[in-house]
Design brief:
Blueprint (H helix, E strand, L loop, with lengths): L4 H14 L8 E2 L6 H7 L6 E2 L18 H6 L4 E4 L2 H7 L3 H13 L3 E6 L3 H5 L3 H13 L10 E5 L13 H18 L2 H6 L2 E3 L8 H5 L6 E2 L8 H10 L1
Parallel strand pairs: 1-2, 3-4, 4-5, 5-6, 6-7
């Protein structure tokens, strides 16, 4: 919940003007009220505009919610689901997220699916089991073909705004576990082609080291995405 209309326009205009030549897929997820303007601002740019969330229903008595059809009607075809803040502050469960994912897949949308353990779970040695449970409950009922529409985003919640720091080695360890878990649930070829992003306080000064890890395919960027030069430095590091 950052950036009003003018601030969003300024940020996206700067990002578009300074975007380096890159093979990375660059996406931005403005607030719902700024999506249409963001699309206009980035018209002709390779930067994709995506949504921060959506509801599982097509329509109905869900005041304040946004449907897949609404997003697609303005040409937004990718959505973030399961972000740690949605889970923590709005009580989104694995069961609810499974319904959202199913809707998005059926609507032919791409999903950036977020998951990750909290500090007490990491300190208690439960992190691998927590991640496996989040993935299996929300995603493992999908057909193998649906995974072409899925991007995974591992968020170690304990490393976001807590003073704790996740090392690149810890990121690689979890990403390798995620890929192994996918291979067991489906098959190795599927596991190897699913992108896995890292979302644990990626910044210009640590991005390059994180992105060199073999199972880290990119980043889900939080605070650093609000400053054009910081975000672009991370894009260059991929």
């Amino acid at each position: 919940m950052n950036k009003n209309l003018n601030e969003t326009e300024e940020l996206l205009t700067e990002l578009s003007a300074k975007l380096p030549d890159t093979e990375a897929e660059v996406m931005v997820a403005p607030a719902f009220v700024n999506l249409v303007d963001a699309l206009r601002t980035l018209e002709g740019s390779t930067i994709e505009v995506i949504a921060q969330n959506m509801h599982f229903a097509d329509s109905g008595a869900y005041t304040g919610e946004i449907s897949a059809d609404m997003l697609q009607s303005i040409q937004v075809n990718t959505v973030i689901l399961g972000h740690s803040e949605r889970r923590t502050y709005f009580g989104e469960t694995d069961e609810l997220l499974a319904k959202k994912v199913d809707t998005a897949i059926n609507k032919k949308m791409r999903v950036i699916f977020c998951f990750g353990e909290e500090l007490k779970e990491r300190k208690g040695g439960e992190h691998f089991e927590v991640v496996k449970k989040q993935l299996s409950k929300a995603l493992f009922s999908l057909d193998a073909g649906a995974w072409d529409q899925i991007i995974l985003a591992y968020e170690p919640v304990w490393a976001i705004g807590t003073g704790e720091t996740a090392s690149p080695e810890q990121a690689q360890e979890m990403h390798a576990f995620i890929r192994k878990t996918l291979a067991t649930a489906y098959h190795e070829s599927l596991a190897n082609k699913v992108p896995i992003l890292y979302g644990g306080s990626v910044k210009p000064n640590n991005a390059a080291e994180i992105f060199t890890k073999p199972d880290v395919d990119g980043g889900l960027i939080g605070g650093a995405s609000l400053v054009a030069d910081d975000f672009l430095a991370i894009v260059r590091a991929i």
